[in-house]
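Per reviewer request, we include the raw input and output of the structure prediction for the construct analysed in the revised manuscript.
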Amino acid sequence: MKKKIWLTSLARSPETMQGIMTSLKGYGLEGAGHFWEDNLDKMAWYTPRTELLEPEVSLWLIHGSAEMFSRPSVRYGLSLLALCIQSVKGVDFPIIILQDGEGDLGAASLPTALKGCVVLPAAGGAYGAKVVAGMYRTSGQMFP
């Protein structure tokens, strides 16, 4: 079974999302994704659940800025989706946050369902090898 990633982009930037996918293809990673819709009333957070639960999806990569992650509705929606995924795939299912821009988005500042996430800077594109490592971790911390 071929492993792949699911990319959630909090910013509606097709160019950025394509750049991330192209960068990861250089590491042999295939993926698909979507643009996040911040609409709790319509349960928009639930939309990518089916794709994330596909057996070949081995990692969830969330891309966005610290400012986007600070929005309560985004944090709540991502937490709900993470809990849905973790209830099926387990709490060790790897979730990586690819942070764009300024600010310090540490894992400690994230909601409980996302506390186990690794936060990587998007700048420079040097995240590919760590994303690959994240797909093959078995449990516990991804990086020392």
